[in-house]
Amino acid sequence: MNLQFDNTFVRDLPADPEPRNHRRQVQGACFSRVDPTAVSEPRVVACASEVAEFLGLGPDACDTERFAQVFAGNQTVPGMETYAACYGGHQFGNWAGQLGDGRAISLGEVLHHNQRWELQLKGAGPTPYSRTADGRAVMRSSVREFLCSEAMHHLGVPTTRALSLVATGDSVVRDMFYDGNPKPEPGAIVCRVAPSFLRFGNFEILAARQDHDLLKTLADYAITTHFPHLGEPSPDVYVRWLEEVCRTTAVMIVHWMRVGFVHGVMNTDNMSILGLTIDYGPYGWLDNYDPNWTPNTTDAGGRRYRYDYQPQIAHWNLARFAEAIYPLVGDVAPLEEALAAYSQTFEHERRIMMAQKLGLEALQFDTPQLETPQVETPQLDPVAEDETEGQNAGGDGALVGELFEVLQLVETDMTIFYRQLANVPVGTSTEPTSDPSDDELLAPLKEAYYSPDEVSPAHRERTLAWLRRYVARVREDGTRDEDRLARMNAVNPKYVLRNYVAQLAIDKAEQGDGSLVRELLEVMRHPYDEQPGREEYAAKRPEWARHRPGCSMLSCSS
Ligand code: AMP
Ligand code: MG
Is the pLDDT of residue 389 over 70? Predict the structure, then answer.
């Protein structure tokens, strides 16, 4: 198998000297060398051909027995050096100490066309960081990680990628809802791919242990390898590095908000320093627009990681990262200033994003700024209720604010709503003649309602009032309807990886049939295109899926 390895992580950073694979606290090292544990009968369920291609694997590489063996962890390729990284993290707001790659094993870094790609097997067996768990992953969570990584990429959201999904032939016991009902499930392994899987937590663990020398070694490695444009590491460069992490994270979060993605477990060990969406666990997609929704049943009480709190949580997480690198800078003020770059970028990008979603040239209004948490703030203050966009602003602020209200009056599918809004006739195709009638305005949106019967006269009036305002606003720009449609359809996807659709693919994959996984991979390669014959995958959540585990409720068990 033709993969060119160049393993900077294990070459430049100190390894755990203990060679035995047993669970422990690992001090003074960034990783432990560990081999995957062999599985009994590896079988490739799906493979992402674009990823195979940018790694330099040939076009038919995935179809071979060798591929299945390598990406199940049963065989190695010359140049591979397998290891698990040491990191810590804040979980649900509390410092959790050492976590680390408990079931992810990196295979090394492939260099192809001057691009560096770390390959990592998730579910490849225990490591020193496995704590009390088994180092394995089940098919359902692996299908979800595989498909969503690729879906997010094609949606234009910064993310880690996925090369392969391999069934192991072994079963894994899981108590899916932690309610005393463990049962065996089919096991699987995903090979995921990213320039680096470094997380905020890799730095936090070293700061927490006051291992400042190693903290500096790791930061310098990260900067010279992955942020070379920042120049030679220095206190000033560490600050500019934080600022860049703030900006890329802000951009990522704006994309999540755009497509209705809820990560579900935004712990600091699940935050990439490259601003990539990482660690697909109990994530979900908004079906009906409900800003308070979280897919993660483990978080149902506090809803810390609910959809519209994600921007604030990312900021809080960045403050933890800033604290971690504080020893390298020695001064709080510049770190706080760098953290402010998050809010600035977020507000700027969100404004552009909302304008695009609505097909407007630009939004003109003052959005309230997110509060910048202090570097040493132990907890994020709850966001005041009146901070929703546009409540104190007129013009476009009110337009957007009222839209978010209207979307919640009755269950309205977020994805279908925006897609259909592009079909609302504004009447600028040719010369504006007569105003569109009420029925013409409302007709495209009907498809977005979960229970059309619930649309009361009052709701209809309020929606119409918003639509009239929207029409007037589009006319101010003078954008022709067909141009608006094209513009909106480029940012408002037709297809997202709906929770229930992914679950259908899981049901089949668990029976040994990977065809729907592969079909969905194809669908999600073109999420903005109309795909005749595949409309069923764009359909709103059916009633049976409303309360079905996996479709609306997920736990961290995976
Ligand atoms: P997560 O919340 O999934 O990002 O995982 C948090 C921590 O638990 C990480 O250190 C994981 O490596 C570890 N972990 C999760 N599941 C397992 C497992 N089945 N075996 C070993 N470690 C695990
Ligand atoms: Mg994780």
Answer: no
29 SS3 class: coil
Residue that wins the pLDDT comparison between 394 and 205: 205
Q: Is the CB of 134 under 6 A from ligand 1?
A: yes
From the CA of 130, how far away is ligand 1's center (Å)? Answer: 7
298: tokens are 């483990």
Ligand 1 pocket, residue 557 CB under 6 Å: no
Torsion angles phi and psi, residue 98, rounded to 5:
-70, 130
Q: Where are the domains of the chain?
A: 8-197, 206-390
CB 249 within 8 A of CB 314: yes
What is the C-alpha to C-alpha distance for residues 292 and 294, in angstroms, rounded to an integer? 7
Q: Please identify which residue in the block is written with the tokens 């704590």.
A: 131
- CA–centroid distance, residue 476 to ligand 1 (Å): 52
The model's pLDDT over 251-288, given as tens digits with 9 standing for 90+, comes to 999 999 999 999 999 999 999 999 999 999 999 999 99
Reported as a single tens digit per residue, the pLDDT across 312-339 is: 999 999 999 999 999 999 999 999 999 9
Q: Which contacts qualify for 452-457: CB closer than 8 Å, 24 or more apart? A: 454/410, 454/411, 455/410, 456/410
For residues 26 and 102, give the distance between their C-alpha atoms in angstroms, rounded to a whole number: 12
Active-site annotation, residues: 269
Q: Ligand 1: does its nearest atom lie under 6 Å from the Cβ of 130? A: yes
- Strands 31-33 and 83-85 come out as antiparallel
- Could you say which ligand is closest to the alpha carbon of residue 122? 1
What does the CA dihedral 529, 533, 534, 540 come to, rounded to 10 degrees? 100
Measure 270 CA to ligand 2 centroid, in angstroms.
Answer: 5
Helix, strand or coil for residue 15? Answer: strand
Residue 27: CA atoms inside 13 Å, Cβ hemisphere, count?
4
Q: Is the CB of 133 under 6 A from ligand 1?
A: yes
Rounded Cα distance, 122 and 302, in Å:
28
Model confidence pTM above 0.85: yes
